[in-house]
User: What shape does this take?
Amino acid sequence: MSSPIRTERHDNVLVIISDNPPVNALGQAVRQGLKKGIEEALGDDEIQAVVIRCDGRTFFAGADITEFGKPSQGPNLPQALDAMEASDKPVVAAIHGTALGGGCEVALACHYRVAVPSAKLGLPEVKLGLIPGAAGTQRLPRLVGAEAALPLVAIGNPIPAKKAEAIGLVDAIVGEDSLEADAIAFAKSKIGQPVPRASEGTANQDGVKNPDIFDQFRAKNGRKMRGFDAPNAAIEAVKAAGELPYAEGVKKERELFMNLMTGSQSKAMRHYFFAERAANKIEDVAPDTPLISINKVGIIGAGTMGGGIAMNFLSAGIPVTILEMAQDALDRGTSVMRKNYENTAKRGRMTMEQIEGAMGILSPTLEYGDLADCDLVIEAVYENMDVKKEVFAKLDEVVKQGAILASNTSYLDVNEIATATQRPGYVLGLHFFSPANVMKLLEIVRGEKTRDDVLATCMKLAKKIGKVAAVSGVCPGFIGNRMLSKRQEQANALIMQGANYWDVDDVLLEFGFPMGPFQMGDLAGIDIGWHRDPSKVTTVREALCAAGRFGQKNGKGFYDYDEARQRTPSDEVKQIIADFAAKEGHEQREISKNEIRERLLYPMVNEGAKILDEGMAQRASDIDVVWINGYGWPLYTGGPMHWAEEVGLDKIVDGLERHGLEASEALKGYAALEGGFRALR
Ligand code: T1G
Assistant: This one.
């Protein structure tokens, strides 16, 4: 098989080229070819300089993640890069696309780096639960300084070429369409000069002179690093670059890297990397299904959901016509959208010009007729079947044939909604999560009659508006809410049986969720939907409302809150719950945190197994994608289904039965199979 690496001579410059689609991952053949190309350049006196570049859409985008966990085949990347850096002939990295991970490390081992303006560079290994493993944590700080290196290595977001040039990672920005020629010219200009080696750099003295930067970085980024192992290892590695000689620093990096590579978090996060990409694929829809062009979107309802949904399309440059029933609601909705954008701008994530651009393609209206030429209309009206069917019947009359009609319902039967139209093939659910302009998850709910092109179009559109989508079948609560209801049922049962409600929240917090159900209730407001009659108490919530406990909004709900909204468990609430339980005839007892965790999470896995078995989710990893992106399931455990397999499905079956809960036939079936949830049933 021909090597993905070839070399071309341009006078006294050897260009080493990789052609390894889709992203020039540094698999074994590429590493082999790279090593050979470097040896060719070093062994030929005619050659006085080297350029390394890639064909296709990007410079090397990192190690080949599919090789991880398998016996490694040489040559290893660090050795190939050391040989290259040791050369006295100038080696130039010619960067386009995304030079990521090992790709960025290849560039760091080159003596110079030139990039086109649209290029990005980064070390995203922490997003896979790793840190760079080819000396990136030791070369980068020596090149750009520890302070500039820290976010790149420990947070893992790539930076644009311009920023990379500003911190000294890139030496020159070259023409977008003349990368190779400019890189060759740059290489020629360096012939005869001593070559700069990142491993010999001293820019990281800032970390030595000001050792506080590491603790300051941890303090600033604590929340997003919470529970993850890799970011702390990354900080340690960058710190070592300022404290140890290069060779020892590389050893330290290797030790930290191997620890992570063999740990559960990286396995989980690599699982998620492929899970998110697999979710884009719809098993029984041909990948080349022709798509419907979506040039104009209609949104019905300018409330929290409608406005948030609209913002996703406006931010992607897709014009939106938003409809309300009354002018004041319409005005309120559009002003909330503008305020949301302005808040984003205050955080430096948008310019005022971008805000005007987005708001400039928004057309508010009170007339259904203005939706006639929309290619997609999404309703976000009151969650009531009759109301939805009325809206869809109206849309069916007004909106052009061939347009997609979508419901943002969070649990209603999309098949029944479709019966209100003459075009059931063009009807599906697009379930956004609140706040819709922020939450990444989109559940695409496939009706019995939903056409393949409609489904494929919405999956592609999801990516365009920056959402992570998964296809769900039609069942109450689809994938996410159906499993959430099982956790909520147990949370309520547990406090009736004597569990401390703060233990329930703390178990989920300690597991890695952003918050527990009772904290969530206080945040949203316990009195939402309350009938306001303190004498009528049929639930714990009504008992709390009757006691004037509405949540954070009035300083007390399940918890008491201080001015900084710090929560404290309340004896009054514990007593209210105990009294309510006694009235309902529940025996109360001490309940351990271990029992709480099993009773909260195992029923979710059980429901996930049923969802999978019923075909309501295409694959178990789609369920992981839903829960990580829609409900804050901790990424470093891979999602409910991956986590369950790591726990052991048979252990989960036993745990359910031990707590008097029913293990479904579906879960028991998967538990009995070698491949668990990955096995076809
Ligand atoms: N290895 C193997 N396959 C990869 C890959 C990789 N590094 N990156 C992408 N793919 C596949 C992906 O699965 C998909 O396959 C296709 O390419 C298109 O990807 C040694 C140890 C580069 C920004 O973490 O961030 O280097 O689904 O759909 O949206 O120290 O892919 O088509 O079959 O994502 O345009 C570090 C991971 C690795 C970069 C392109 N590198 N990749 O995004 O396309 S660890 C990364 C990405 C490492 C070193 C360490 C993105 C992208 P399929 P895509 P995209």
The first strand starts at residue 5 and ends at 10.
